[in-house]
Amino acid sequence: MSQPSLRKQTVTGFKWSFVNQFGSQFLNLIISIVLARILGPEVYGLIAMITVFTGLAGLFLDFGFGNALIYKKKVSNLDWSSVFWLNLVLGLTIFLIFCFASKSIASFYSEPILINLTMVIGVNYILNSFSITQNAKLKKEIKIKEIAIVTIGSILISGSIGVCLAMNGYGVWSLVAQRIFMSFFNMIGLFLFLRWIPLFQFSFNSIKSIFSYSIYQFSGGVLSYGSRNVDNLLIGKYLNSEELGLYNRAYSFLMFPINAISSIITTVLFPSFVKINEDIEKLKRNYYEISKLVFYIVLPLMSLFYLCAREITLLVFGPNWEGIVWILKLFSLLGVYQAVIRLNGPLYTSLNKMKLNFRLSVFSEITNILAIVIGINWGIEGVIWGIYVATIINFFPINYFILKEINSTIYSYYSQFFINSIIGGSSFFIVFFMESWLNAFPLIMSLIIKVVSFMSSYLILSFLFKSKELSLILQLVKGKEV
């Protein structure tokens, strides 16, 4: 494939990935807001208790084979088919495990309702097992448009079903139904678009050829998942479902834009980086450009989450959720760094440095887990401050080793954010010092003034400082190739 066509394909992929991620995240956000206002924190706490276990099972379902097939240069139909059948067996196995483990999970949290909830949610893994290979095939070909249509359509239909059930008094089961129907329609949509039928054959050699790649990604994913969910596990165990609901909703709400941006990067950059992984200087240059763009986009979003936490909570979720205001503020400070550091993923995978990624994950995730375990003694606030401490401890190893692989340094990489940090920081403090005065205004008026003031300052300063990222965004909006 010629480089110009690859560049054009990547830009097109970015546009559709943007539509997919922000379209799906926006729909998910609207649906979750409607459901949250109907159901309240306790219901979300119950689902979060189960998600600690079901999310981990999702890693076993994929086992890193999807990305391994994307990375592999030549993939035969037998390779795809073998992974498909293995995923199906894993999906059925996970479902049976959850059926047998449901009583133990309910006993752990002292919530009897979790028995039936866990078994029904387990059906998701059978449905999802049909979709993994199709999704990977489309990603490998950078056919993001098809994925976007399926994802957004599935969210819209399943979300509508969930809201209807919630309005008719089905409580927590409305959230369960939403997840089941989401997986079902996603499965159907991918099959219709791809129209690929697996061979009725299985090859251990096909699995063996990608196992050495996938095992490190899987192991790193398990460690990462454990450190990111031990907080939910401990809060659900030692506090209560309502506090877990508040904590989980605050974190999920804040992570909407970060997850969307990270998914765009992973979906499009990974297959693109694989094609240029032998040109380190080009890889480094592209990585720098994308990092600055992500930083430029996420910085104002996280700043506004902090500045407008009170208005957003009361206007969007209602007074029953007022307890998440201070949680949103604390998490927003971590949001920018989280978005930037997630860009390491496509680098590790495209450079086939999964062993290095795994070793660093062992250190960083153990640090995260220990910090959270200690922090739970001071409640939710202790957990969040524990995450901050772990982030500081992990900063050097997480950044140093991967940057070394592209002939870069921590100083060289992070100094590129200096100008945009000045732009964002100045805009933040302009609105921050207005806050006490704005408290006397109605919530909607206060929110509008804060957003308009911040974004006006941010764009004006970006223009004065001749921000390249602003120019790049304008070019993408106009449809020009960059």
Structural commentary:
- This protein is mostly helical.
- The chain has 22 helices and no strands.
- Helix 4 packs antiparallel against helix 6 (123-129) and helix 11 runs antiparallel to helix 12.
- The chain is globular, with a radius of gyration of 22 Å.
- The model has no long low-confidence stretch (mean pLDDT 82).
Short description:
The protein has helices at residues 3-39, 41-62, 65-71, 77-109, 114-121, 123-129, 132-140, 144-167, 172-194, 204-238, 241-275, 280-307, 309-317, 325-341, 344-350, 354-375, 379-405, 410-415, 418-432, 435-438, 443-464, 468-478. With 482 residues, the chain is mainly alpha-helical.
Q: What are the segments in which pLDDT stays under 50 over at least 5 consecutive residues?
A: none
Provide the β-strand percentage band: under 5%
The main β sheet shows up as: none
Q: Give the number of helices.
A: 22
Helix vs. strand class: mainly alpha
Number of strands: 0
Shape: globular
| Measured distance between first and last alpha carbons | 19 Å
Helical percentage: over 70%
> Secondary-structure element sequence?
HHHHHHHHHHHHHHHHHHHHHH
State mean pLDDT (0 to 100 scale). Answer: 82
| Rg measurement, Å | 22 Å
